[in-house]
Each structure stands twice: as C-alpha cells, then as structure tokens.
# Entry
Amino acid sequence: MITVNEARIKIEQHTLPLSPVLVPIIDSLGAVLARDMEAPIDSPPFDQSAMDGYAFRWSDLQADSYLILQGVVAAGDTSATTLLPHHCLRIFTGAAIPEGVDTVIMQENCRNENGRIYMDLSSTIQGANIRPAASQCKQGTLIPLQGSILQAGGIGYLAGLGIAELSILPKPKVGIIVTGKELVTPGTALQYGQIYESNAWMLMAALREGGIHVGHHTRVGDDLKETIEAIREELMRCDVILLSGGISVGDYDLVREALFSCGVEEIFYKVKQKPGKPFFFGKKSGTLIFALPGNPASVLTCFYQYVVPAIRKMQGLSFDPPRVQRLLLHDYFKKGSLTHFLKAKVDDHSVTILDGQESYKLNAFIEANALVMLEPDQQQFQKGDSLEVLPLNTIWSSSNTESLKSASS
Ligand code: AMP
Ligand code: MG
# Structure
C-alpha cells in the first residue's frame, strides 16, 4: 500500500498533456492554448475614421473658411477615394481614410450650407479622430498565447485579426465501465438483492462539471470475459478509462485480473486512505486507467482526489486543483492511521465535517461543498485547527496553468 502523496506523485508522473488539436475559435473557450501566433494582419488594417464627421486636409482650412463637400466615404467602401484640394468628405466611423486626408472633425462641430462645410476647429487638432493602421497590432507581431486561456474578449481580439481556428489542448475522451451483477438502471423495478446503479451517473455528472460529455457507459456483471471485452473496447477509443467496483479482494472482484489480461500495466494498487483503499491506477499506451472501488462515496472521492488532477494535466492545467486552509468548527476524532477524506461544508473561514462518512453513503454530498483531508498520523483534531480543504466548486478552475513547453514542442 502506498500513501496518498505517493499515489498523487505517481499519477502526475504518468500523466502527459494530450497532443494539441485545431478547433474553431469559439470552441477554444476555456481551453488551454497550445501555441503562440503571429498576427496575420495589421490591426486596424488601414487608417480608420474614429468618428462620424468630415475628413479634410488640415492645411486647407488655414486658408479657407469653408471646404466644399466632395462626396461620402462609409465603413465597408472598398474603392479608394482621393481628396481634392480645398474639399472635404463626409465620413463615417470605421471608413478608410482617403488619400490626402489628415484630420477628421466630428459632425457636431460642422455646419453644412448647400455643400459648403463650415467647421469649428476649437476642439479639433490636426490628425484628430484617425485610428492609425496597425495601432493595435502589427502584422507579424508575436502574440503570446501558449498556456493561456481566453475569455470572450480574447476570442474577439483574435477573431478581429481574422483568426478562425486555434490550437488547443483538448479534453480527454473518457470511458466509464461499471461492474456488478446487482446493478439495475434507475427507472426500472428493483428485485430483492438488487440496487440501483448510481456510479456511472455520478461520474458522468462529475465529468460534465469539467466540460467533458460522456455519451454512454458500459455496465458489466461480475464476469471476467464481459469485463475484458468492455475494457478492450474502451482502450481503443479512450484517453482515460474509469471503472467502478470489482477491484477489492472478494471472489467476484475481477477487474484487476481483467485489466492484466488486457495488457494494462499496474502503476499502483491500494492506497492508505479512507474511503477508497482498494484503488488501482494503471496505464496502457497513453490511456490512463483508474479502477475505483465500487462504494459510491469512494468512487467520487477518488475521482476528485486523483482523476480530476490527471484530467487537468492532460488538458494543460496545473495538476493540482486549488486547495485552501480552513479552521475546523468543532472537535473531531479520527480512528486509525489512514488518510481520511471527509465530506465537509466550508465557508470563507471555517469548515464543518458532515455526518454520514461511510463509503456506501452519498447523502452528505447533498450538503457538502468540499472534501477535507486529515493527515494519517493524527487522530485528535481540535476546534480551531487549520485543515486542508479541496473546494468542489473550483476543482476545474483554470486559474493556474502549467508551462506547456513539452505539450507544444
Ligand atoms: P465492489 O467494489 O464491487 O465490491 O462494490 C462495493 C459496494 O459498492 C457494493 O455494495 C456494491 O453493490 C456497490 N456498488 C458497486 N458498483 C456500484 C454502482 N455502479 N452503483 C451503486 N453502487 C455500486
Ligand atoms: Mg462488485
């Protein structure tokens, strides 16, 4: 049996970021970007009017009291205009500045008398109201994107440079296999000795919180051949396989044997923790396999503690989700010398350990918003002790990203 910390280290060592893929820019939202880019164009691509008004040559108005209206240029006009001497052009925001123009004046400061435009220059200077070409970004400039996560504004900026696709680290393809002859799908009748299958739904929901949609799951009885077939199938298409149940030491716990038959390499089996002691982690050519003990609270706890960090790393996030310290609101006695993960409720300052910590019970998860970790070598915890807490609502938070040098090289 290895410690929780050793288990974490081994999982981190065996997990690699996935290979980058090119996606439509909208699908890059929330993903870690794999590469820097060079700006493909100047932005703006041409000198642009920043106002609705009149475009003119500053020196002309030094001599004349008015300018003659030559025509109109609007945003989107694609044929170039040249300004005649002593003339001006009606111009609108976003229009290309014609040859010969050096200043735009707001229409509010102008008077049109039969095509003669009188201008009040008191609040305008030469060069005003023109957005110079490339003033936001010059063509060829390196845009440092690697490792960053775009928000809507960033996507707008890159789309404005004409970028339609981005290279991102994708989310892994995850397969779910639940084992157990006793399991029945919710919504159907239960016979004596049967229970409703809940782990697959819980895992699908937990993955969906991280933006990973698993369309189907496989259910197998406690049958070696069936289990091997299910694992083989998922090995062909998945980056991560989650199994539930059948990994303990009972006569019908056949998952480990099935994994070996499929050529899965065992990285570790059994961790000094509660819940979730008979927890298996293995690998086969790039696919990570987590065999989670069947008890529902063990499944979810191991998912949060070990599977989430691995998936985070695969998609370019830091391995560790954010953890915080909170003050225990009451005394607590922990039996034994395993690391305990306990369903808890936290607020900004404190943490309460909830009732119902047995591994077959999920009811505390209705209220729980965090898992508390209690160190193995301590039994007695006092009110006011500072404890390490894993808040569940930030478990997929992308605030801290790792360097992606290895991912994109
Ligand atoms: P196992 O690890 O297969 O011995 O299962 C441990 C406990 O978890 C047993 O009480 C099982 O009935 C229960 N269990 C296993 N798989 C599931 C599941 N998918 N949904 C709900 N309970 C399960
Ligand atoms: Mg079982």
